[in-house]
Amino acid sequence: MSFYDSLETNTHSLTAAERRIGSILLSDRAGAPFLRASELAQKAGVHESTVVRFAQKIGYAGYIEMRAALRDDSRDTMDRTIAMRAEGEKFSLAVVINSQIEVLRSLPEKIPQERIDSVVLALMDARRVHVMGHGLLLPTVEFLRAKLSATGLHIDVITQTGRERAQRLAAVGADDLLVVLAFSEEYHRVSEQVKLIERQGTSIVLLTEEDTLLGGNLPEHVLAIPRDRARHGVIVSMTALCYALNYSVLLKRSDDSRHTRDRVQELLDAASDPI
Questions:
Q1: What is the CATH number of the domain that holds 37?
Q2: Angle ∠(26,31,107) on CA atoms, nearest 5
Q3: Are 170 and 124 in contact (CB under 8 A)?
Q4: Triad 204, 157, 223: Cα angle to 5°
Q5: Which residues of 30-39 are buried (b: 16+ CB within 10 A; e: fewer)?
Q6: Residue 16 contacts residue 216 (beta carbons within 8 Å)
């Protein structure tokens, strides 16, 4: 098992100080294998023994063994980068596609169907579903809105930032569901807002990347997508998760979904201008 797989598997058992160590290692994947335990401890603001305990907690005998695993992962990344450069520009599309495939294949292992099912139940129990995201994830937000709306669920989107986003979040009710689509850095910027919404009783679902797991302030439902070592794959995999949620809702709401489709067609037929 790679260092990154070991870290993800044991994330929930880490203390806040140990999560800081993990965040530093994830943020500098090239330099991390060359840090001494004392240097890593200084960067994280912890005692050196905490670094050793972190290594043991995620499955290694000690810091030396963990650093060896980091070097192996770094070497794999370097080999892949060298291969990409050696193959030249004409192979760049194939390399990107293979990276996407690698991440997609890992999803069923990383995100079991039981976790998808629990999110679907939360979607169906909600009075209204709010889907929040912006930036690069705006198309994915709109895609999820369109898919879930077609099943008959009441979907609203929150794509604003700053005061406008706060105003929209203030309207989210205790019996609603908030689905947050965000990369790691963006989620950490809004996590306190999300926790305020959760404290009033609102169910929260977070679709994100695996690095977010080290930050804390996580809601009950988290679907975290791994990246390959070349840092590809999140948006395509998030779209795949949206499909999985949509299909599961369709199965559980087949009659409601059929009624919605029939009603949409009836309204289209009644329009004087079908365009």
A1: 1.10.10.10
A2: 30
A3: no
A4: 35
A5: eebbebebee
A6: yes
Q: pTM to 2 decimals?
A: 0.71
Q: Range of 145's domain?
A: 98-271
pLDDT digits (tens, 9 = 90+) for 90-121: 557 777 788 788 888 888 888 889 999 999 99
Would you call 189 exposed, middle or buried from its count of C-beta atoms within 10 A (0-12, 13-18, 19+)? exposed
Give the whole-angstrom CA distance, residue 141 versus residue 225: 16
Bridge partners for 222 per DSSP: 206
Give the strand order in the sheet containing 129-132: 155-158, 129-132, 177-181, 203-209, 221-225
Rounded Cα distance between 187 and 115, Å, is: 20
If one counts the domains in the chain, the total is 2
Distance (Å, rounded) from C-alpha 99 to C-alpha 194?
Answer: 32
- CB 212, CB 23: distance < 8 Å: no
Taking the mean position of all CA atoms in its chain, how far away is CA 173? 24
Look at strands 221-225 and 177-181 and give their pairing: unpaired
Percentage of the chain surpassing pLDDT 90? 47
Which positions ≥6 away from 182 have C-beta within 8 Å? 132, 133, 137, 190, 206, 207, 208, 212
DSSP letter at 202 equals: -
Q: Which residues contact 147 (CB under 8 A, 6 or more apart)?
A: 242, 243, 245, 246
Q: How confident is the model at residue 52 (pLDDT cuts 50, 70, 90)?
A: very high
pLDDT classification of 162: cutoffs 50, 70, 90: very high
Residue 176 has which token pair? 């609603």
Say which residue the tokens 């997609």 belong to.
104
Do 43 and 126 lie in one domain? The reply is no
